[in-house]
Amino acid sequence: AQSVTQLGSHVSVSEGALVLLRCNYSSSVPPYLFWYVQYPNQGLQLLLKYTSAATLVKGINGFEAEFKKSETSFHLTKPSAHMSDAAEYFCAVTLGEGYSTLTFGKGTMLLVSP
Amino acid sequence: DVKVTQSSRYLVKRTGEKVFLECVQDMDHENMFWYRQDPGLGLRLIYFSYDVKMKEKGDIPEGYSVSREKKERFSLILESASTNQTSMYLCASNIGQAILQVSPLHFGNGTRLTVT
Question: How far apart are the CA of A79 and the nearest CA of chain B, in angstroms?
Answer without folding.
Answer: 25
